[in-house]
Amino acid sequence: MCWDVVVAGAGAAGLLAAIRAAERGRRTLLLEKNRKPGAKILMSGGTRCNITHNTDARGIVEAYGHQGRFLHSALAAFSPADVVALFEAEGVVTKVEESGKIFPASDHAADVLAALLSRLERSHCELRLSEPLVGLSRSEHGFRIVTSESDYNAGAVIVTTGGQSYPGCGTTGDAYRWMSELGHTIIPPRPALTPITTNATWVTSLKGVTIPDVALRVVVSDRAVNASEAKPKKKNKPLDERRGSFLFTHFGLSGPVALDISRTITGHPEPTTLDLECDFLPMQSVEQVEAAIMREVASDGKKQLIGVFSRVVPRRLAEALFAKAGINPELKAAEMSKATRQQLVEALKRSRIPVSGTRGFKKAEVTAGGVKLSEVDSSTMESKLVPNLYLAGEVLDLDGPIGGFNFQAAFSTAWLAGSHV
């Protein structure tokens, strides 16, 4: 059977690309390997689905850094405001949280998926489930698509199979082989937005403790610097810096800021040579923290220092930092020496956590790497190497920070691809 357009993968990008193509009158088939579509939509954002971010196209571009330039045309075609308008038109009321994340007001990811499926049905696109694509090649009709159930011919194909994150959802990197066989360059995939692991017991003992505002820096550990140089560097310049909340876990760190900074760790050739430097009071300078401690000492020298610290960080963290520094938690404020004060300030502003790795693709929210962007026409999402082959979403070498940016890129690139097939 010959179709105008075949879309491979019924995730966020695939659903919207198929909707757009079918609404333009293109005879469209959407193939999905799972028994149900949108598996990743349903589990994203803690099953709430953060559909986009409360910003404009420029804000999305800036969030992506050097990759952002690729998104200009896609965002011009389908902006964050357009995403919100689409779901609102389907009856999904949205809300903006303090962080800028936009969720369905119901906090149910199922509402997001239901809206897309409702519009897909009205578009007259045909959806076939439990039918994985196993082969894609050029043919006299355009493309030959081989699935587990049948062979199809299509004038155009949109690949929206995702990357390798959350492989349990079916995103196992299948398209990389097809794209490579068709001549595309694949930037080696690696996990992004994935939790970070450590062997430091003082960290893992704090499981369950949340820090609402912390500045994290990825630095090469002093151990690695000293091992490679006769004289250590005077300044260990951060490889990356992010700020936000994080959660201590039984394996290390999770939460927004840890997930955001993880792509720097997975992109490093030797992750175990890295440390996370934590500033638990990023709103205050070292001098301000030291002055605050001195004021507390002056106001009541009989109070225990641990009590003073428990007012600025959680008690369990304060106890862990005292133990790590070898300071008696029963020490009175008046008994604190200058050296002890400097130790405590250092612990609050520059605590180091040695990195052992990450939780990998199994727990990654997105994939860094994929089809090389320079081989795709950013104004249409069509391959520059293979006419009538389009790519959208996470299969591309695009990965943004946490906060709805990755869904926005998926929706925008999908809409653009569906507009040009």
Helix content: 25-40%
Strand % is 15-25%
Q: Which class best fits the helix and strand makeup?
A: alpha+beta
Please summarize the sheet with the most strands: 7 strands, mixed
Morphology call: elongated
Description:
This protein is α+β, with helices and mostly antiparallel strands and 421 residues long. The chain folds into two domains: 2-190 and 365-420, 3-Layer(bba) Sandwich (FAD/NAD(P)-binding domain); 196-358, no CATH class. It has 16 helices and 21 strands. It has helices spanning 12-23, 39-47, 57-63, 72-77, 80-89, 109-123, 174-181, 201-204, 222-228, 256-266, 286-299, 305-309, 315-325, 338-350, 360-363, 405-420; strands spanning 2-8, 28-31, 52-53, 94-96, 101-104, 126-128, 133-139, 142-147, 151-159, 186-192, 196-197, 210-220, 240-248, 252-254, 274-279, 351-354, 357-358, 366-371, 376-377, 382-383, 389-391. β7 and β8 (142-147) form a beta hairpin. It is elongated.
Task: From the structure above, extract its key features.
single chain; 421 residues; alpha+beta; FAD/NAD(P)-binding domain; 2 domains; 7-stranded mixed beta sheet; 7-stranded antiparallel beta sheet; 16 helices; 36% helix; elongated
